[in-house]
Amino acid sequence: MPVERTLSIIKPDAVAKNVVGQIYTRFEQAGLKVIAARMMQLSAAQAEGFYAVHRERPFFRDLVNFMISGPVMIQVLEGPDAVAKNRALMGSTDPKKAEPGTIRADFADSIDANAVHGSDGADTAAEEIRFFFSGLDLCPRA
Ligand code: ATP
Ligand code: MG
User: Which of 18, 47, 109, 110 is the most exposed place for a label (fewest CB within 10 A)?
Assistant: First the structure.
């Protein structure tokens, strides 16, 4: 399986619940390495830019307001099949439909406050990593 990188965000609801460490443990136990990380409180312009693909969707304003409601923890994950593996760990967008044992089933409350973001493909992963990190921030290792 090819080694890939993906962008993950632990959203304000999960940061507020103080489960950053528990979510990191899931990444690590699945063979994903954190190779860059930063905690920050997004501005509205940053959240709008990050979620620009959704700007025409009816939930866009709520999504942006939620993402700026508190600090988020942003990381680059690296490992075999990282994009799909992270999506599998996350579970379905709506936590009510998320498979038991997934991050969203265990930590999320609603489709808005759904604990984590993960890139949904190789191209979006590269774009999203560039949005938050420079090459110098990445610390890949064997
Ligand atoms: P994310 O991009 O955050 O990883 P996702 O890829 O599972 O989640 P998307 O379709 O990309 O889901 O939607 C982005 C975010 O917008 C979702 O995480 C969710 O918080 C919100 N969202 C998506 N669909 C809806 C909806 N029907 N109603 C309300 N919010 C929604
Ligand atoms: Mg998405």
Answer: 18
Strand order, beta sheet including 3-10? 33-40, 72-80, 3-10, 116-118
Q: State pTM to two decimals.
A: 0.97
With a 6 A CB cut-off, is 5 part of the ligand 1 pocket? no
Q: Identify the residue whose tokens are 């990593």.
A: 129
Q: Tens digit of pLDDT per residue, the chain (142 long)?
A: 899 999 999 999 999 999 999 999 999 999 999 999 999 999 999 999 999 999 999 999 999 999 999 999 999 999 999 999 999 999 999 999 999 999 999 999 999 999 999 999 999 999 999 999 999 999 998 7
Ligand 1 within 6 A of CB of 112:
yes
